[in-house]
Amino acid sequence: MFNKPSLFPKSAEPVSQRTVPARPATGVGGSVSSAAGLSAESSLVRDARDSVQAAAEVAKQPVPADAGASGGSRLIVGPDVKLKGAEILDCDTLVVEGRVEATMDSRVIRIAENGAYEGTVGIDVAEIHGRFEGELTARQQLIIHATGRVSGKIRYGKILIEEGGEVSGDVQSLARAGGKESMRTAESRAADSKPPLAAVAG
Questions:
Q1: What is the pLDDT of residues 146-188, one digit of tens each?
Q2: Residues 2-27: pLDDT tens digits?
Q3: Which among 179, 174, 146 is positioned nearest to 160, based on CA atoms?
Q4: What letter would DSSP give residue 5?
Q5: Which letter, b or e, does each residue of 27-45 get, where b requires 16 or more Cβ atoms within 10 Å of its Cβ?
Q6: Which of 105, 155, 162 is nearest to 128 (CA)?
């Protein structure tokens, strides 16, 4: 009677392999809240899906070419805007799509294909797609694209002209122009230091 193998198995099942029946989740009052758990989980999944879609939309948007390069102040003169008789100060990047007559000293100027600038500019980098007339000093680099037209007194650190681009006027590198200016200054100092000729008595 007690020798039946089904009553007393020889090898006991390890504790780790025993299966414990899952208990249903209960709410505050002891009732089953599996429906609430499922709705909370689905809202979490929905929120995660929405944030992934939002990140994908942001990633699709085009990044401006000068993003991060010039993190300072930026002024854009639109296609139908005319800015005349101004002095532009504290502007890191000026983008000209309309017409500007002004003086400025800044970091970057970009003249769009339909843009025009007339005046005096001291700048680190000048990128010309449109038209410039006046006095331009590009301390680091002057870039004239195929549609660019530059005329006047032009000084540059380095220059790059695409095929089709035009530059005319008094055009010199800063190193060469600086050397000529220093030679003129030295000559004028030497002329000033010469003793005056003694008057010859008659």
A1: 999 999 999 999 999 999 999 999 999 998 876 555 445 545 5
A2: 555 555 555 555 544 555 555 554 44
A3: 146
A4: T
A5: eeeeeebeeeeeeeeeeee
A6: 162
Nearest CA among 140, 132, 139 for reference residue 165? 132
| 73 Cβ contact partners less than 8 Å away, ≥ 6 residues apart | 90, 91, 92, 93
Whether the CB-CB separation of 131 and 117 falls below 8 Å is answered with: yes
Residue at token pair 């991060």: 68
Residue labelled with tokens 């294909």: 113
Please state, as a whole number, how many other Cβ atoms lie within 10 Å of the Cβ of residue 81: 13
Q: How far apart are CA 22 and CA 25, in angstroms?
A: 9
> Both ends of the chain: CA-CA distance in Å?
163
Q: Indicate the residue type of 201.
A: A
